[in-house]
Specification:
Layout lengths: L1 H24 L17 H17 L1
């Protein structure tokens, strides 16, 4: 069960990172993102979610 959660976290971390990367290199895309999601769609959050998924998938 934890491995399945880890895989889902890995699959969620990659798009979060890519959205954060797009926000950094294309600042004009800020107006398309709702204010509630701006704190979540960042590169560090994507990296942390990806790493948490790797830990769950590897060790459990």
């Amino acid at each position: 069960m934890l491995v399945a959660i880890g895989v889902f976290l890995i699959l969620a971390g990659v798009p979060l990172f890519l959205f954060g990367l797009a926000r950094k290199f294309f600042p004009a895309s800020e107006k398309f993102i709702p204010d509630d999601f701006k704190r979540i769609l960042t590169m560090p959050v994507g990296i942390y979610v990806f790493l948490a998924g790797l830990l769950l998938a590897r060790f459990f």
